[in-house]
Here is the input.
Amino acid sequence: MWNLNCCFLSNLLGMSVILADNQDITRAGLQLVMQQMAEDVILTATDKNALLMSLKERPESVVVIDYTLFDFNDVDEMLIFVDRFGASQWILFSEDLSLDFIRMVIAASPRVSVLLKESSLSEIRECIKKAIRSQRFICQRITEMILTAPQVEEKTILTRTETEVLKDIALGMTTKEIAEKRFSSFHTVNTHRKNIFRKLGVNNIHEATRYALRAGLVDSAEYYI
Here is the structure.
């Protein structure tokens, strides 16, 4: 569901900001930053249907989105939104993104900026300001990754544990459920998940699941039960 946050403030630019992030703590922090910057209207969207409704109402919005947690099936689906709403600006604000994904979205549209959740507050504010002015911003860490990474990355095979965790992810188990099944800590399983996503060059559960299906780790009949 989506809601209009009642904070019609004094921003002369009159730009709306849509926070598309499923983490309550992240949304609360971003809302505070936006309010301090005197943004006009702040909206929240927790799924793509709510995001679509918000963009139809305010097509010139700045969308701050955590792609890794949002319910887009793949990057192409997200880029359809970017192309459909040509007056919008997009800030990818995630904990971890693969280099191939970053290169793809940067090449796809000049209206996509990239931040990591480890970015400094000054970088976050600068990115928002540039997006409001229809300018792209790439955080320092991502810029360094792009400049220093080899053009062709070496393929890395998953460990046995990572393969087992990937199968559980593809079968719809949460990180907490996998930890309980494996008698491991939440932190340990979450680390495995990050390593799996990094090695496979995927960014969310949907992409990881498709890989598991293609690799035969999960039978399609078992997946659709």
Q: What stands out?
A: The chain is about 50% helix and 15% strand. The longest strand covers residues 89-94. The two ends are 27 Å apart (CA to CA). The CA atoms of residues 83 and 109 lie 8 Å apart.
